[in-house]
Amino acid sequence: MTSKNHSRSLVIIPAYNEEKRIAAVVAGVRAAVPGAGIVVINDRSRDGTAAAARRAGAIVISHPFNMGYGVAVQTGYKYALANHYDFLVQLDADGQHDPACIPDLLAPVVTGSTDVAIGSRFLGKSYNPPLARRVAMALFRRIVFLATGKFLTDTTSGYQAFNRNVIRFFATDIFPVDYPDADMLITLHRAGFRMTEVPVRMFENSEGKSMHGGLKPVYYMYKMLLSIGVTLMRSRVKTNKLSNPCATTRTS
Amino acid sequence: MLESQKIFALITCCLVFAYIVNLVRTRKLHEEYSVLWLVTSLLMFILVLRYEWLVSITRLIGAGLPTTTLFLCSIIFLTLAAVQFSIKISHLTDQVKNLAQENALLRAEVSQTSANPGPEKDSK
User: What mean pLDDT do residues A141-151 have?
Assistant: First the structure.
């Protein structure tokens, strides 16, 4: 992929209290896809994440208060839409997602062979998640297969790339900002988008931080099963009828 | 139903009705949220006056006493009110999220524009 192509791509990094690691992630992204836009969505961190990201050369969008991972990535989608980017890659700010895999993830989207590329830790050389997580992943893998007929190995991967049509789709209220995972994949499939998996490398979180701590796994399972159920009950979304949610935002 | 019970119920209905109307009058409560309260207090008022209707409803739903029917109505009303608030809170949550995102995007745009002043905004 050439640098010219990268200029049409945006890499979004939702971040919360990642002051220590954000600079290395931004540098890794810049080395992997020179010329691509890099946006860090600072979800009201209590440390110096915003300043560190800015020093590393990223554009920083700061939420006025903490709203969670899903809202942060959607802010990135809205930025990409308003600024006419054609392709988008999202990766975590904690260094779990290896930025060196971005070109591989972007390639099928840029060539038009798919609308969404999902980075799979199970197809690449990655860490092995804990048993409880693997069981949940296997359950959602099965549900996604039954609902879509597609066998996706990593239905909870947040390392993804997609094209402008998907960006527009996700910038609306259709996007499930509360843990966007398997339900989102089913929604995408039902909306007619093509999905494919790409092997990526993911590392274990060195500080052991997780969005799935405390009682959150219980809520996560409840929310995901309910969300998948109602997603299947809803009528299919006509993507061409979606309005531009950023119509009032000026663009560069 | 004892006369004293009837009088107490009627006074309560009237007080709730007057209180809700006053809240709307002083713009402390939107008309939208007054509907359930006013309809319920009116319904209770009618059922107390037309006690035979309350007895018929009690027989229809298989409750033991007319007062049980009234309590049941109260619980249904409170459930409906709670659901109405949950719907509204969900809607407001979406609106706050969209506003906060818009605010964050505009602030980023303003800081980018101030950092790179020029005849045209930098484009990708």
Answer: 90
Q: Which residue has the higher pLDDT, A90 or A247?
A: A90
Q: Please, which pLDDT band fits residue A242 given cuts at 50, 70 and 90?
A: low
Residue B15 above 90 pLDDT?
A: yes
Read off the pLDDT band of B61 (50, 70, 90): very high
Is residue A32 a contact partner of residue A53, using CB atoms and an 8 Å limit? no
Q: What is the Cα–Cα distance from A93 to A40, expressed in whole angstroms? A: 8
* Residue B59 structural domain: 3-112
- Tell me how far the alpha carbon of residue A126 is from its chain's centroid: 18
Element of type H or E holding B99: helix B66-115
CB–CB contact A79 B97 (8 Å): no
Residue B85 lies in a domain: yes
In a domain, A246, yes or no: no
Structurally, chain B folds into a number of domains equal to 1
Contact A66, B93 (CB under 8 A): no
Q: How far is CA A245 from CA A78, A94, A188, B88, in A?
A: 8, 29, 18, 21
Q: What range does the domain containing A206 cover?
A: 3-241
* Residue A250's pLDDT band (cuts 50, 70, 90): very low
Cβ-proximal residues to A138 (8 Å cutoff; 6+ apart), any chain: none
pTM assigned to the model: 0.81
> Do A11 and A38 form a contact (C-beta atoms < 8 A)?
yes
Chain B interface residues facing chain A, Cβ-Cβ under 8 Å? Answer: 94, 97-98, 100-109, 112, 121-124
Which residues of A have a CB under 8 Å from any CB of B? 7-8, 10, 37, 41, 59-65, 67, 71, 74-75, 78-79, 82-85, 173, 177, 245-246, 248-250, 252
